[in-house]
Design goal:
- Helix 4 crosses helix 5.
- This protein folds into two domains: 231 residues, P-loop containing nucleotide triphosphate hydrolases (Rossmann fold, 3-Layer(aba) Sandwich), CATH 3.40.50; 70 residues, Alpha-Beta Plaits, CATH 3.30.70.2860.
- It has a six-stranded mixed beta sheet with strand order 9-10-11-6-12-13, sandwiched between helices.
- With 399 residues, it is an alpha/beta fold.
- The relative contact order is 0.12.
- The longest helix has 18 residues.
- The protein has twelve helices and 17 strands.
- The radius of gyration is 26 Å and the shape is elongated.
- Bound molecules: adenosine-5'-diphosphate and magnesium ion (MG).
- The site of adenosine-5'-diphosphate has 13 residues, from strand 5 and helix 2.
Amino acid sequence: MRRQETSTGLHGHEPLELRPATGAHPTRIERSAGRREAGASAPAPQRNAHFGCRLVEGAGGHSKARLRYHYESEDMIKVENLRKTFGPKVAVNNISFNVERGEVLGFLGPNGAGKSTTMRMITGFYPPDAGTIRVGNHDVVEEPIQAKRLIGYLPENAPSYSDMTVRGFLGFAAEVRGLRGHAKRNAVNGVIEMCFLDAVVNQSVDTLSKGYKHRTCLAQSLLHDPEVLILDEPTDGLDPNQKFEVRSLIKRMSEKKAIVFSTHILEEVESVCTRAIIIDRGVIVANGTPEDLKARSNLAGAVTLSVQGANSQAITDKLASLPQVEQTQAISVKDGVIVVRAFPRASEASALALGVAELARAQGWRVNEMRVEEGRLDEVFRRITMPDTVKRAAAGVNA
Ligand SMILES: Nc1ncnc2c1ncn2[C@@H]1O[C@H](COP(=O)(O)OP(=O)(O)O)[C@@H](O)[C@H]1O
Ligand SMILES: [Mg+2]
C-alpha cells in the first residue's frame, strides 16, 4: 500500500510517527519516553491523524542552537549511487551528487524523470534500494531522526490537514517539531510573515486558494529554521506575483542553508539556482551552473544583428564570408529592419563579435542592435531530454 505523505515531512513507518491517541485533546502531543510501541511498525498516517497525536521517539526537545552545530561538513547533502525501483520500473538509477551550504540546487527533468522519488529518498520517505544519503553527516536510513531534524520538506502537491485553520496547522506542525511556548509562537508568527499568510491565518486550510495552500505547506517546512530545504515544485500553481515572492524567499534563505528544489520553469533556475541538475529517466544527464548549462546551447556565442534598411540576402552573404562564421540564419524582416544571426566556428567563437562589428562598420550598415547570445536553458533542456521523451512517447510508454 502506498503511504500518504504528510506535509510535515515526518513519515509513516519512520521512528517519528503521528498516531491517533484516543481521547486526547485535538492539538495535544504526548511524548513517549522512548521506544516504539509493539505493533506500531508501519501505520499509514491517517486523515485527521493530528486529532490527538502521540509523538513516538520524539524529535522534540531539540533547539535551533543545538541543530545549528550538529554538522561538521559544509556538504550538507551527500547522495551516492542512489537507486530506486518500483517493480520493473527503475525510477532512480545510480544518482550521485552533493549540495553545500549556500547552494540552491535546481532539479530539472521531464515528468517521470525521478525528481520527486530522489527527494523522497533524501527526506526519508522512501528507503533507497541501494546507495547512501547523508544529511549533515547523518545517514538518512541509519539515523533518520537526526537527519530529519535538519530537513524542511515541501512535498509535491503539498498535502496538509484540510480542516485545521492555517494557524492551527502551523501550530500543530511546530509541536511535532518539538517547539513549545514562546519558541512555538515565534516560529509560527515568523513563517506566517515570511510566507505572506497574514490574511488567511484564521481560515481553514480547505477553503484556501491553491497558492495560499501551497504557501501554508511551505511555511510548515520552514518552522524549525532547517539547515536543509527540499522543495518539490515550490512555485507550482502560484500566480506570477506569488512565484516572485517564493523565489525571493528562497534566495533570501539560501545563504545559510542547502536548498534543493525541483521546477519546470527554466527562468526560475536562472534567477534562483547556483547549480542545476538535469535528470532524465532516473539518470543525471547534466550538472552545472546555469551559465555552464547555457554555454552548452547551440545558440551560445552566436551574434545576432539587427540592421535597418538593408537587404537580408546581402547581409547574410557578407556575414557568411567572414572566416569566423560557421553558418548564418535570417531571423526576421519587419518594418525595414532585418534580424540575422551568425554562428561561430568552434575555434573562432571569441573573435566573432569583433569580426561582425568590423564588417558592419566597413559596410556602413545601420545597426540597431548587436548582441552575443549566451545560450538558452530551454534549448539545452530540450536537446538533452527530448530524444528520450520522444522515444518513450513513440513506444507508447507513460512516464
Ligand atoms: N510509489 C510509486 N509506485 C510506482 N511507481 C512510482 C511511484 N513513485 C514514482 N513512480 C514512478 O517512478 C518514476 C519517477 O517518478 P517521479 O520521481 O515522481 O518523477 P518526477 O518527479 O521527475 O516527475 C515515474 O515513472 C513514476 O511513475
Ligand atoms: Mg515530481
